[in-house]
Amino acid sequence: MYYFIVNNTSGGGKASEIWNHTETILQNKNIHYRVFHTQHANHGSTLVRDIIHKEKARAIIAVGGDGTVHEVINGLTGSSIPLGIIPAGSGNDFCRGLGIPMKYNKALDRILQDEPKLMDVGWINGRYFGTVAGIGFDGQVALETNKSSNKKMLNLAKIGRVSYIMNVLKVLFYYQPTNVELQVDSKQTKHKDVWLIAIANLPCYAGGMYICPDARNNDELFDICILKDISRWKLLRLFPSVFKGKHINHPAITITKGKKVTINSNSPITAHSDGEVIGQTPFNIRLEPLTISIL
Ligand SMILES: Nc1ncnc2c1ncn2[C@@H]1O[C@H](COP(=O)(O)OP(=O)(O)OP(=O)(O)O)[C@@H](O)[C@H]1O
């Protein structure tokens, strides 16, 4: 039996339509499935834990965006049941980073081929993540984006990325870089005027920003991007290059790799993981190698 977790609110509501089309294909192919619709934030994790506890699932499939996949992963970690994804959000960076087709019928075909592969996941302050944890500037952008009332409207107009970029510009105007103490594995360093630290398991976030273009989901390492010591105006000019991952050669960027990261700052800074806001410094982050089986 395949279990589907559908977040009808993902992609400004388009997930519901995508689910209807997917369900038609499942019925035409005579595939046994059950569906659960999330009723509120974090419900996805609870539903998955219940399924694992009571049922013998062949796979659990998230139908939604990165926030929905994030919740499903947090319910699924520790189990060997494979995860499938039907992209139906506004960002869909899990699918972009894993090479899962963006069209629901092709994504379903891939799930039904039944060829799971193991992937690494990250852990930050008690929560698992699959794409990127962003600390500092982009944690603040996630905070603004999640509370902005224009997101749903722009999603419906199929220009959800605009909402994110508008918030990048807003935060760029007021954000104050901070001093940060960083430990990567056994190496401790201090950094002044840090804008952001991104800890990446997959190369992109925020709807196709390739913050760590060389990150791989099964290399048992995080790629870590540190952006510091740059003026607001230079950062504004650098920003467009992140969509192609071309920012990495800029002198304000340092890229390193590691499995275990701790971050402390002189004033509290916010983080997101998979686009979901998770709190403020200090952060303890570690890689859980080859933990989730992905279809
Ligand atoms: N029934 C519900 N009502 C309101 N919010 C919900 C419900 N079910 C889940 N959520 C929340 O919806 C949020 C957004 O979901 P999701 O990330 O899947 O969509 P998205 O933001 O459109 O896509 P993306 O993250 O890829 O940009 C998640 O934080 C999740 O906790």
UniProtKB/TrEMBL annotation:
Family of this protein: Belongs to the diacylglycerol/lipid kinase family.
SUPFAM superfamilies from the entry?
NAD kinase/diacylglycerol kinase-like
Protein name according to UniProt: Lipid kinase, YegS/Rv2252/BmrU family
> What is the superkingdom listed in this entry's lineage?
Bacteria
Q: Which cofactor does it need?
A: Mg(2+)
Q: What is the lineage of its organism?
A: Bacteria, Bacillati, Bacillota, Bacilli, Bacillales
| InterPro entries given in the database record | ATP-NAD_kinase_N, Diacylglycerol/lipid_kinase, Diacylglycerol_kinase_cat_dom, Lipid_Phosphate_FormReg, NAD/diacylglycerol_kinase_sf, YegS/DAGK_C
Show which residues constitute the signal peptide.
Answer: none
Q: Which UniProt keywords apply?
A: ATP-binding, Kinase, Lipid biosynthesis, Lipid metabolism, Magnesium, Metal-binding, Nucleotide-binding, Phospholipid biosynthesis, Phospholipid metabolism, Transferase
Q: Which GO terms describe its cellular component?
A: plasma membrane
Q: Which residues form the DAGKc domain?
A: 1-128
Q: Which GO biological process entries does UniProt record here?
A: phospholipid biosynthetic process
Organism field: Lentibacillus halodurans
The record's GO molecular-function terms, alphabetically, read: ATP binding; kinase activity; metal ion binding
